[in-house]
Amino acid sequence: MNLAEKVAQMVVVRASGHLFDDQIRYPDWEPPNSKLQYWLQDLGVGGVIFVGGSAVDLATRIQQLQSWTKIPLLLAADIEEGVGQRFAGATWFPPPMAIAAIAETNLKKAEEYAETMGAITAQEALAIGLNWVLAPVVDVNNNPDNPVINIRAFGERTELVGQLARAFIRGTQEYPVLTTAKHFPGHGDTAVDSHFDLPVIPHSESRLAEVELPPFVDAIAAGVDSVMSAHLLIPTWDKELPATLSHKIITGKLRQKLGFDGLVVTDALVMGAIANRYGLAEASILAVEAGADILLMPLDAEVTINAVCDAVSQGRISESRIDESLQRIWQAKNKVYPTWQPGNEKRPDYFLPPTFNLVENLAQSRAQETVTQILQDSIQVGGGYLAPNTDDNHLRNLVLVQDLLNSPFLGNHTPAIAIPKKYGYQLQLIENNSEPIQALIPHHLTLLQLFIRGNPFGKVASLTQVAEDLVKKLLKSGELQALIIYGSQYTLKQFSPELLSGIPYIFCYGQMPKAQAIALELLFKDFPVSLYSRE
Fold first, then answer.
1. Rounded Cα distance, 280 and 276, in Å
2. How far apart (Å, rounded) are the C-alpha atoms in residues 113 and 117?
3. Superfamily of domain 379-532
4. C-alpha closest to that of 385 among 496, 499, 505, 529
């Protein structure tokens, strides 16, 4: 291999999980097919990370992409909550913090859930052709205002995060997939989303060693295949460069001090914390200098490859440094393609996952039962009894979401909409944004359903002030009949026990339709359906 081909293997680009260009949802980040084919076929890019599409779409998409390559691809996705979190039709688990909540009273059961979640995620990933699970999150979410980690973490306590992460990794290990501990050295104690800006972790060496690092130590001991760096500035370790670009942190701390010898992958290079400060070419070079093996989601693969090759030509990076990363990449690819060897360009049939039997491998009864059990064991119910009201002309189902145009868990057919409709509730949808929320027609008993959680690019992880004022107004007027919160327990904590006195409420970590059904069936369990049913 020449130098450019070696460097190309270090690059993992983002692509839509859909097959056709007119289905691309994020054109700024997801290349059209002609460019993607050029990157894979001509440049020899080593891997792809996917977002969007159904499980069947993605299986077909992977067949297409593998057919373009000489060397089999690393095929990744952020499936922290199961394959169904990203690709419809597969299993969508509750977020990891639901399992952490169960661990507070039954650690053994929580570990069993985490292990089962890991096993099912790995099995379903392989069924559709993915071989790199970008999970588990091992950040300790000890900052309630964290807008980006939040309930993606296995809890707020260091020891518990490590225990559940180990269990998740253990569950994956009977399958030939790669796992990823992220985001090193810990993104849990931030109130800034690194997709937008560079968070600063001001903690001392002793605090980092006590709180942030142990879950990574646990994950490495459990055999995690890769570690993803965080776009964080940690002045205690490096006053100038964020962790992703810091040799002191990636090589000095992760490689040398913690002894990790697997793949180091950057967090996405398109994220604002890096892209807005360094530009793609310099960021790519700095990441390789720091010790990264995989450069994830550069906006333009060719720019990254050329920049790193130029740095080698100029003597800034040695070719032996590139070869070190290449050997780790070969090791990873040998795990997921056990009969493939470098230099063998023939693609065995198993590189191309079959699509005809996906139904037999996705969302099977064991997976669905586990999802239901986690949801039921982590749900919180309080506030009293919801009594039927015969004045059904004045019943409102007020659904508040973070983004009306990006809520795949909602639709006319989903329980949050369909079940209240059976009981005569009229739907109103609003957003949890900073704009004034439209006036509500008064004198309507209101079932309020809040879909709020921390997410990348979500900006907020709890109720905005405007939304909080709306809730207080409903409480003051006596119109709040019942409350259901789906997502972040930090939202529940915004409501004091006194505020919810006498108001039936339910909190559920999951937002998917199964979570909605469980919550609403609890709320309406004593209602006679015939009382409000519509023809």
1. 9
2. 6
3. Glycosyl hydrolase family 3 (3.40.50.10870)
4. 505
pLDDT at 405: 79
Q: What are phi and psi of 474, to 5 degrees?
A: -65, -40
**How far apart, in whole angstroms, are the C-alpha atoms of residue 79 and residue 95?**
10
**What is the reported pLDDT for 278?**
94
Which residues touch 53 (CB under 8 Å, ≥6 apart)? 16, 17, 18, 19, 23, 61, 87, 88
DSSP string, 47-58: EEEEESSBHHHH
Strands 132-133 and 180-184: unpaired
Which residues are CB-neighbours of 175 under 8 A, at least 6 positions away? 119, 122, 123, 125, 126
pLDDT at 535: 33
**CB 202 within 8 Å of CB 246:** no
Q: What is the percentage of the chain residues whose pLDDT exceeds 70? A: 91
d(CA 92, CA 246): 35
Asked whether the whole model's pTM tops 0.85, one would answer: yes
Choose the catalytic residue: 18, 187, 195, 203. 195
pLDDT for res 533: 39
Dihedral sign of CA atoms 304, 309, 310, 315 in order: positive
Instruction: Please state which CATH class domain 12-357 belongs to.
Output: alpha beta
> Which residue is catalytic, options 57, 139, 238, 267?
267
| pLDDT value at residue 530 | 44
Q: How many CA atoms are closer than 13 Å to the CA of 166, on its beta-carbon side?
A: 17
Residue 394 bears catalytic tag:
no
Q: Is 267 a catalytic residue?
A: yes
> Using an 8 Å Cβ cutoff, are 43 and 12 in contact?
no
Where are the chain's structural domains?
Answer: 12-357, 379-532
H/E element, 110: helix 107-128
| Residue 348: cis peptide before it, omega within 30 degrees of 0 | no
Choose among 407, 400, 380: nearest CA to 493.
Answer: 380
- What is the per-residue pLDDT for 68? 94
The token pair at 27 is 């054109």
* Nearest-5° Cα angle at 125, 346 to 5: 40
Buried b (16+ CB within 10 A) or exposed e, 494-514: bbeeeebeebbbbbbbbbbbb
Spans of the chain, pLDDT less than 70: 345-357, 388-393, 433-439, 455-462, 498, 526-535
